[in-house]
Design goal:
Low-confidence stretches: 277-283
Mean pLDDT: 89
Shape: globular
Number of helices: 30
Radius of gyration: 28 Å
Largest sheet: 6 strands, mixed
Number of strands: 17
Distance between the termini: 62 Å
Helix content: 40-55%
């Protein structure tokens, strides 16, 4: 078989493994993204056979959901009877509790251990003090030159191993037909999906590492297959599944659907409580301030508490604030992505020191340089062989004092560390082209206007308050390898503060405002000030970056800061379930080194609501909904809605499926328990002293106890308030969105304001079914559950 044919087969096989994102930018994404072109049921069945994994919640989880009223008995009975299941619920729960047949797993763990050893050494990104030799020649060639020194491989003659990975693969697959080779590649890529997923990510997203130390799936397969040959292991093993328990599989799927439909019923019933007359009344009340939060589920809670503490209007918008940018940090000069992974970066944002703050800049740079040197010095002293033991003995006392303080008084330490001003107080963000080798500071006015106009259009903005805050979000946690997973997913797992400050600066630009007025008749009052801010999702504190605010707005800013402080108190009380010192407890969680669960992140996410705030306002949605502002009346052509569905809706589906699969099989798709994590290569964690690279969320981010998932594993239900024909037209022109719906990766419900807010659910191939309205469980439902559980 020629090389082109082999490369094509590898490309097809690679679709079976997703991408493993590094710890420093841990983006949540669907681990089965390669299966999205297939119906959900078919996809999870295939994945279960390939990976030997669970794809549905356990029977105990379903039992708990039924007993808690999360699964409506009437919905469950209807779905079961339709498929001919007429026995009691308990009978089917016991049936689902029995182990189901799965494909035979890879029995050759010796080969996996060998590959983990080579991969962790080659792919290291600076954690190891001594670098693996020959890395610059690529993974295969480096392995070939070093494997002769590996005693576990037996006696190896270098002359017997082909000089290139292409020649090695051609030799290894010689004699097999194409179907067998395809299966062989899938087996070996799926054996360590975390590691192969990271190779997938690295080849596409880390060009600097790839240029310096090349590795790809072809090289990986050449090394793995040749290692199997050296270890005298067959390159292809029997993975024929045992007899599949079709009934067992179908029952779990039906219970999942019943749970999802039950949630949809409650959500739609709740959303219908706000009438159109309320919308008109609320529109006429001019707010004292407006705040734009990320669509993140954690924003739902803080928005309620902010609105309760003043005459404030809040909006929901993707947290990168529509700026396709990378951000250059003044702390280390590193440039990192700050927009969704599916969006190519068009700009780079860096910091420009204000002319009257140059002295403060020198102080910041001096302290920062000292901190960088100190961190480097400590790393060298701990890792260098001559100094290791002496350093530990000599520095033990000081480390002990530090550890004691972090253990006994983490809250005061948190406050002390956060007392100091940051570079945001002495500088302003500046935008330049991402495609220019030199920093092009002359970004066209047209581009600046487009960024601001797009933001206002997508949110359906009607009026401007004297003060408008763009509130990005970030998190704070100590000793947490997965810390970036708690930051803004729309900013590629970075804090959203940089994007918020940049959009505020653009919206304050007089030239931008004048162009908006002349070209689009969009007039921003001269008295309106835009300010960037950040919501700390661990402590619910909202910090304003207002160092350069004019004197005219000082009183308004002082008032809003006081009200935001009140909102922080009530928000932390609700989130932590305590009335006593809730802020102190939140700060303790943020800074305590032994805290395995500083916050819940996006756990419990189940829906994405695209609608005016008036439809969700005054409802406690329990942090289960992404909320994107949208006004169908200002979007006559549906352009804004199409952009929301193409972008944020797809991203929320990624997040939802990441949480779903990490919950149903945390060992395979999640991160395992934090208590035994070991960081490898700076980019990932393994459980204990080796094994596969963990590709998903840790157990502590998902579970509140054994078999008690805090995150309810449901597929995403999208609810849109818009005319039905507008949504249909968008789907007709977007095959990718239609595929996600037809294949049931997403549910879509439309609440049509032109039809009395009647709701319609998408049912494949542009067919809409009008939903029967249900509310709280009826007497009949309660009776069904009592009889079924008897």
């Amino acid at each position: 078989m020629n090389q082109n044919a082999i490369e094509n087969l590898i490309a097809k096989a690679s679709e079976r493994v997703g991408k493993t994102w590094p710890l420093y930018s841990f983006v949540t994404s669907n681990p089965l993204s390669g299966y999205e072109n297939a119906p959900f049921l078919e996809a999870v069945e295939q994945a279960g056979a390939v990976f030997g994994c669970q794809v549905f919640p356990k029977a105990d989880v379903y039992r708990m959901a039924l007993e808690n009223g999360e699964i409506a008995p009437l919905e469950l009975e209807k779905l079961l009877k339709k498929k001919g299941y007429t026995k009691s619920f308990e009978h089917y729960l016991e049936l689902m509790d029995t182990p189901s047949a799965k494909a035979v797993k890879n029995p050759y763990h010796q080969l996996d251990r060998a590959m983990v050893k080579w991969l962790s050494s080659f792919m290291d990104e600076g954690l190891a003090e001594w670098e693996m030799p020959y890395k610059a020649e690529g993974f295969y060639k480096a392995w070939r030159k070093l494997v002769t020194y590996d005693d576990t491989m037996g006696k190896v003659k270098l002359s017997n191993i082909p000089k290139t990975h292409e020649a090695a693969l051609e030799q290894l697959v010689s004699g097999y037909d194409e179907a067998i080779i395809q299966e062989l590649f899938i087996q070996h890529l799926a054996a360590l999906p975390g590691w192969t997923g990271y190779i997938n990510h690295r080849t596409q997203n880390l060009p600097l590492w790839q240029q310096k130390y090349p590795i790809d799936l072809a090289q990986y397969l050449a090394v793995r297959l040749w290692s199997a040959k050296l270890l005298k292991l067959p390159v292809l093993w029997d993975t024929a599944p045992k007899t599949q328990d079709t009934q067992h599989f179908e029952l779990k799927y039906l219970w999942l659907k019943a749970w999802e439909k039950s949630w949809q019923n409650r959500l739609v019933h709740t959303l219908k409580q706000n009438t159109p007359s309320q919308e008109i009344e609320l529109d006429e009340k001019a707010p004292d301030a407006q705040m734009v939060f990320c669509i993140d589920t954690r924003s739902e809670l803080i928005r309620r508490h902010v609105e309760a503490n003043g005459n404030y209007e809040t909006f929901g918008y993707a947290g990168f604030f529509g700026i396709a940018m990378d951000y250059e940090s003044p702390k280390d000069g590193h440039v990192h992505k700050a927009c969704p992974p599916i969006v190519p970066s068009s700009y780079t944002v860096s910091e420009k020191t204000n002319t009257d703050k140059m002295e403060a800049k020198k102080v910041f740079e001096r302290k920062n340089s000292l901190q960088i040197f100190w961190n480097y010095f400590l790393k060298r002293m701990k890792n260098m062989l001559p100094s290791t033991f002496g350093f530990v003995e000599g520095a033990g006392f000081f480390y002990g004092i530090n550890l004691l303080g972090r253990t006994l008084v983490p809250t005061p330490l948190y406050r002390w560390h956060n007392r100091k001003k940051t570079y945001e107080s002495i500088s302003e963000p500046e935008l330049h082209s991402c495609n220019s080798t030199a920093k092009d500071l002359q970004i066209s006015l047209e581009n600046k206007v487009a960024i601001v106009k797009s933001a206002f259009d997508l949110m359906g903005w009607k009026q401007f308050a004297p003060l408008v805050l763009f509130v990005g979000h970030g998190s704070h946690s100590a000793n947490n390898p997965f810390g970036s997973s708690l930051d803004c997913g729309a900013c590629a797992a970075s804090p959203g503060r940089h994007n918020a400050r940049m959009l505020a600066q653009l919206a304050n630009d007089k030239n931008v405002r004048q162009a908006l007025k002349e070209q689009f008749q969009l007039e921003i009052p001269e008295t309106t000030l835009f300010v960037g801010a950040e919501h700390n999702t661990t402590t619910d504190e909202i910090v304003l970056f207002d160092a350069n605010a004019p004197e005219s707005h000082k009183n308004a800013l002082k008032k809003i800061k006081a009200n935001l402080a009140k909102a922080q108190v009530t928000a932390t009380q609700e989130r932590l379930g305590t009335l006593k010192n809730s802020i102190g407890q939140a700060q303790f969680n943020a800074n305590y080194w032994g805290e395995t669960r500083p916050e819940w992140g996006l756990a419990k996410n189940a829906s994405f609501v695209i609608a005016p705030r008036t439809m969700t306002q005054n409802h406690n949605l329990d942090g289960r909904c992404f909320l994107h502002s949208y006004d169908w009346k200002t979007d006559k052509k549906g352009t804004a809605l199409e952009a929301i569905m193409q972008g944020p809706m797809v991203v929320t589906q990624w997040i939802n499926n990441h949480y779903y699969f990490s919950t149903v099989d945390n060992e395979k798709f999640g991160g395992g328990t934090k208590t035994t994590h070991n960081v490898t290569g700076k980019f990932g964690v393994v459980q204990g002293n080796g094994g596969d690279l963990k590709m998903g969320l840790p157990w502590e981010s998902l579970f509140d106890g054994e078999n008690n998932p805090y995150h309810k594993p449901l597929r995403l239900s999208v609810v849109i308030q818009a005319p039905l024909d507008r949504v249909t037209s968008i789907l007709f022109n977007n095959d990718g969105l239609k595929s996600l719906l037809d294949n049931e990766w997403i549910y879509l419900i439309v609440m049509d304001p032109e039809k009395g807010m009647s709701s319609f659910v998408y049912d494949k191939r542009h067919i809409w079914l009008e939903r029967e309205e249900t509310a709280t469980p009826s007497k009949k439902e309660n009776k069904i559950m009592e009889d079924a559980m008897a």
